[in-house]
Design brief:
442 residues, alpha/beta, three-stranded antiparallel β-sheet
């Protein structure tokens, strides 16, 4: 079992209740076998339910047309108690100008002549803007774009800007000991076994640190694989894990660690109940798709999950941006198209909001084959949304003093919009009483 004290926000006494525990699902041996799970949030001991669900083990091929009941245009969101938020974090700084493209701009052609697509390749939205061709599937299903998101502090550090997004902080002086998603979970928590979950990445999820809600970070979408395996070795292995977590000796921190390990094991047991060979739709074989397939099954369960975070890395495109960025957006598109088709097969699409985040955008001017860290970017949203463009496009002819796009939509207003969708007063989870952006969500 690994125990991490990477989070420096709280002292040792409160660690057992609220901080990131860094607990592998079943000790060092289990971690080496790929069963990583990390518990965040409150210190209680609910038994996670056994679920009969379906999850993909990964496949290849086009998935956009595989659902017999694809998402329809939505006119209103599902009931409040059923709503689930899916956050896709585009790690590294997604280039908004290569995602939502002002294709008719002469300024853009002058700033990055070697990075642009041919106009006939683009997915046209209107007479000003087009989507990257890799997003054709999502556009066909229906998508909203929020333009100009950024920080007025002008910070271009991955660490600092990621911290602001994770914490939902308005500036580097507005530091929080919980994560924005964790605070949403605290507001949504009704005592269910699990309120917030991250799937993929390294399991360390500061944005899900909560005061009272139970949240969990899974380093691997297939963390429950060892509960599906048959044979004497795996039977003894599972018994050993449960025996280790049941030992009662040690102080407060060790008891909290063992309790967290027990919950993680029980959660892995639930995941092990999903049949990886059966699924309502076919998913592509990417890590992102596998994580979303697990998310879909959990949403059919009684675990109480309301917020799911899934990272997609690789967006720090200093070099070879054109090919890398197109590929990442294709991975995003294919995974989300399959996920939304999956949700629609059970009528879950109306109550599921999908939203992207990224720590910052890229500079308007290219640097050789890539772009450096910039400021304003954009976000993609799918589900119960008003289709099309929202917000204000940053000007390409009036750059800031660092030759970056000047933000037109503060991050806090974007987060306030997500909180408001849950009918949560943004002032309960954000500083400064930011106002939700009208018209983008339904």
């Amino acid at each position: 079992m690994t125990f991490s004290e990477a989070d420096s926000y709280q002292d040792a006494k409160t660690t057992s209740r609220r901080r990131f525990l860094g607990l592998a699902a079943a000790g060092a041996t289990a971690t080496s076998l790929g069963a990583g799970a990390f518990l965040l949030g409150k210190d209680n001991d609910p038994r996670l339910p056994t679920v009969d669900g379906r999850v993909t083990s990964g496949s290849t091929g086009s998935v956009a047309q595989q659902s017999s009941n694809p998402p329809a245009a939505l006119t209103k969101a599902g009931p409040l108690a059923d709503r689930t938020l899916i956050i896709i974090e585009l790690e590294g700084g997604n280039d908004g100008l290569a995602t939502l493209i002002p294709y008719g701009s002469g300024a853009l052609r002058n700033l990055r002549p070697d990075l642009l697509h041919e106009e006939e390749e683009l997915v046209m939205l209107d007479d000003e803007m087009a989507l990257n061709p890799s997003l054709a599937g999502l556009n066909e299903q229906g998508i909203a774009v929020l333009e100009g998101i950024g920080s007025t502090d002008g910070i271009l550090s991955h660490f600092e800007m990621s911290q602001l997004w994770w914490e939902g902080a308005t500036s580097i002086d507005d530091r929080r000991h919980t994560g924005f998603l964790g605070r949403l979970c605290d507001q949504l928590d009704v005592g269910d076994p699990l309120t917030g979950l991250s799937i993929g990445g390294n399991g360390h999820v500061p944005q899900l640190i909560a005061e009272k809600a139970t949240t969990l970070g899974l380093a691997d979408a297939d963390a429950g694989w060892f509960f599906r395996e048959e044979g004497e070795f795996f039977e003894h292995f599972r018994k050993s894990l449960l025996s280790m977590s049941a030992t009662s000796t040690g102080g407060e921190l060790m008891n909290a660690a063992r309790h967290g390990s027990t919950q993680a094991i029980e959660f892995a047991d639930m995941l092990g109940g999903f049949d990886p060979e059966e699924r309502p739709v076919e998913y592509p074989g990417s890590d992102l798709a596998n994580s979303l397939a697990v998310a879909a099954n959990l949403m059919r369960s009684d675990s109480g999950v309301r917020i799911i975070h899934v990272p997609l890395g690789g967006f720090d495109t200093h070099d070879d941006q054109r090919g890398t960025h197109d590929y990442l957006l294709m991975e995003l598109d294919e995974a989300l198209v399959a996920f939304r088709n999956d949700l629609a097969s059970d009528g879950l699409d109306a109550s599921t909001l999908i939203a992207t985040t990224s720590e910052f955008g890229r500079r308007p001017k290219s640097s050789d084959s890539g772009t450096d860290h910039g400021n304003a970017s954009m976000a993609l949203l799918a589900g119960p949304i008003t289709l099309g463009r929202h917000g204000e496009s940053p000007s390409l002819t009036r750059l800031d003093e660092e030759d970056n796009l000047a933000p037109t939509t503060p991050m806090a207003e974007y987060y306030a919009t997500l909180a408001n969708w849950f009918e949560i007063d943004p002032s309960l989870v954000l500083s400064g009483k930011p106002k939700p952006i009208p018209g983008i969500l339904i």
